[in-house]
Amino acid sequence: NAGVTQTPKFRVLKTGQSMTLLCAQDMNHEYMYWYRQDPGMGLRLIHYSVGEGTTAKGEVPDGYNVSRLKKQNFLLGLESAAPSQTSVYFCASRSRGPDTQYFGPGTRLTVL
Amino acid sequence: DQQVKQNSPSLSVQEGRISILNCDYTNSMFDYFLWYKKYPAEGPTFLISISSIKDKNEDGRFTVFLNKSAKHLSLHIVPSQPGDSAVYFCAASEAYSNYQLIWGAGTKLIIKP
After folding, report:
1. Is pLDDT of A1 > 70?
2. Residue A13: per-residue pLDDT
3. What residue of B is the nearest CA neighbor of A58?
4. Full set of structural domains in chain B with CATH
5. pLDDT-derived band of residue B94, with 50, 70 and 90 as boundaries?
6. Contact state of B100 with A48 under an 8 Å Cβ cutoff
7. What secondary structure, in 3-state letters, does chain A show?
């Protein structure tokens, strides 16, 4: 039981490049989330999904897209990376109701 | 407008003593509160939670207190241990928003030997 995994762990991009971050969970959770964490700030929600095939915008969605084609996977895409997207990205999942969210180990992204 | 605030960026406590981490919120609709712990280069891990119908919840060395009238919650760690050194995040949610979490900025707890 791996919980929540994220790929890759580290990535360096040049401005304008694109990439996809992959999140996978093996807990059969309905809800999945993508957050970013910047120094001195709490986690900010980028996008989330309440089930397979559904996605919704969070607090800071601009510059990102997501897809949830399979229940266990949640992809975060950057179409044209900008230095402001340098951050640590966390994926999380939870089951229905006020249950706790379970987090992946994070992806550290640097955009030059 | 920060709905969840942790006003202390860092806190230093002697090993064996009590650590008290504080969190304030502004949204009276929040009905579920959680504390997460985060070590460097790892994702946050759940520590303890409390529903708004309670004012206290205990789990071993960790106790969370909720004061709804003051819109304040606190996490007590007794006794503090070196392994407790980490960043602690407070988060809040409400059923209306499908329990999306709103996070505080975190407090870095340092336990001194």
Report:
1. no
2. 96
3. B100
4. 4-112 (2.60.40.10)
5. confident
6. yes
7. CCCEEEECCEEEECCCCCEEEEEEECCCCCEEEEEEECCCCCEEEEEEEEECCEEEECCCCCCEEEECCCCCEEEEEECCCCHHHCEEEEEEEECCCCCCCEECCCEEEEEC
